[in-house]
Amino acid sequence: MTDQEWEKFFGVARRWWGNDLTSYKRTHLERRLTTFMVQEGLADMSALITRGQNNPEFWERVHSYLTIHVSEFFRDAPYWQTWTQAILQWPDVSLKLWSAGASWGAEAVTLAVLLHAAGRSYEILATDSDAAILREAEKMEYGPEVMSQVPTQYHQAFEQIGPTRWHLIASIGGHIRFVRHHLLSDPYPSGFHGILCRNVLIYFDPSARLTVAQKLVRALLPQGYLWLGATETLLEWQGLGLQVVGPSLFQKSVAPAAEG
Asked: Which residues 6+ apart lie within 8 Å of 144 measured at CB?
């Protein structure tokens, strides 16, 4: 696609979604958007924009397709053990946690199940920019393929509601709140003991990635934890006032970092 076509697409996207896609890696967006257009039988960018005229449902589908939603329960199990051990070091207070880029909620639910099993009080904010995927996440209902990812000792956290459907029990799910939020453009909440933002920063360009990392760190309480994806790096961790405490796991210093 030409630069002119991209600018035209970005302009329309801003009007519908209120965020600037120019901060995402173009290679990722172009690959996803091209596949979407082929599936929809759209010959070019003009055809896509014409199809979307006065059609919010269409643009919601475009946004959902451009957003990666690969997630699963207890993904990277050893990392979850390290994260849980770290977050449980907080004194016996109600933990305030944020799953940023939560997709369909797998990581927020995993965290809730682990904290419930540990007997800790908690509240989890789970956010994503995709309204459609959040509607699915809020149901907290899962089929057999998803449930197969849950270790046996945690099956009691789910109740069977049909031959092939399970629901997260209310005493756990009631502590998870799903909210639409865009990391690049919306104001950030704050005061968190821990933030999960796994496999999200890799889709941003270097400038946007650093900006989001800075905002996530500011959203943490002193000594709060930031957990990234297993393949993600944060070379600027020292300048952000963080220390490395485990694989892809960082802890905020007590003293604030200098503003960059």
From this structure: 164
